[in-house]
Request: fold
Amino acid sequence: MDGQAQIVVERVNHTYRPPRGRPVLALSDISLDIRPREFLALLGPSGCGKSTLLYLVGGFLPIEAGRILVEGKPVAAPGPDRGIVFQHFALFPWKTVRGNVLYGLERQGLPRPEREKRAQAFIDMVGLHGFEDSYPSQLSGGMRQRTAIARTLAIDPSILLMDEPFGALDAQTRSLMQTELLKIWQRSPKTVIFVTHDVQEAVYLAERVAVMSARPGRVKAIVETKFPNRDPSILRSKEFVEKVDQLWNMVRDEAIKAQEATGS
Amino acid sequence: MAGLEGQATDQATLAEAEARISHDALRRFDDIFRRGAGAFSILALLVAWEVFARSGKVTPFMLPPFSVVAERIYTDAFHGDLWINLGLTLYRALTGFFIAAIGGVTLGALMSRSRLVRWFFDPLISVGFPMPKIAFLPIIILWLGLYDISKISMVVFDAIFPVVTATLAGIAGVDKALIWSGRNMGAGERQMMWQIILPAALPQILTGLQVALPIALIVAIIAEMAMGGYGLGGAMMTASRYANSPGVFAGIVEIAVVGYILIKAMAFIRRRLLVWHTETAPS
Reply:
């Protein structure tokens, strides 16, 4: 499997150093292989460092110990091969939907007609036709996240890093967005690392779930969560419910530990 | 039975409609009141001025009635130096303001990027901001003389501080995820500054400019008063020297009007530049 892994995380440690107070070991000895076009969820209680691991793969934080290889090359900086979607969208509020989607394409130096065409295609794909000239402040949370997804997909990354992308959305919108993300992923398969603390979301979306322990974050277990299809109807199937139950028990243990550790 | 019920509903909807109408009327009244409130207090002040000045409790020399001052402004505008004075004051204040704006944003941006620049300028700003810059006026006169350049320098010297501090605070407050998004999509250092960081910090930078603009006008007028010559401040001092009471009060009114127009213009520019911002989004 090593030979075909697209992302290799090897013995990575990370220490979080707050401006005041003691440094905290956020990630401890993380090793993980991710295959091309795989949908992997990082599941764990809040504060376990799963977002930190995502930022390290993205090249946003310096790697202090261990190494991370993408396509065999060590990660040194952010790059358009690894697109990221944040929980709070991180749209450029002074740009319209179209302006946001165009930005990455401008940076890549695509000729104007081509980037206009490409931007429009992705705006249509996420269902925002008719909202091209709206500013993010005029959109609902779900529409903002659609814009962010279109903006990231437009630069055509081979790897999609998603940091609790649906965490700020209401339950109905979240479930719609999950189904749409699966559709997009099935149409143009990319390697996805999806950070979440929602067990059902992880099991529904991912092919494999890496369960992380409470701080310092370790990979506690990797669970296969492949199902014959990804219809919303599987949510009520016996296998699905059992899988959720199994993972939920693991996460709950860690959440309890995390609470005890913080003394609350 | 059915008829009674129907009647009851009719009454209910009628009451609702009435409530809605009175609510609408109330809101319209509220709108008019709020819009008119600013003008009302100024009008009240002017009326009180006029009445008090004509009451005989003060001499026209101490307080000429507003109508006399208004007449004086009218004469100045058509037969006097009002436009020269006004133009010179605006030229000094606005030139100084623009230099302070560009210099302040540049310095703030450089300080946020380079530790060395920040290390050097941080203490200077902390000491300089609360200092009364007007104390440097004699030195500026010695160095730069009595003409426009010294007055504009005073304006820059005073107005640059709020711009630098607002730019620094604005840049420091830019969401990390926005910066990471820019990096992720391939923005280089310069593009990050021009295309991501400065636009994201724009609301706060504009707040700094909105503070700096009245300062620029105030300092231009004080410098004119101290150095004499043409300009609204200089004209007031000349009028005062000739014991020309309406002339002095005319200067006050002119300055008030100019300041009001400048502030409104700045607020208008802010709204235009920040159409995307939640503060200007129609609710």
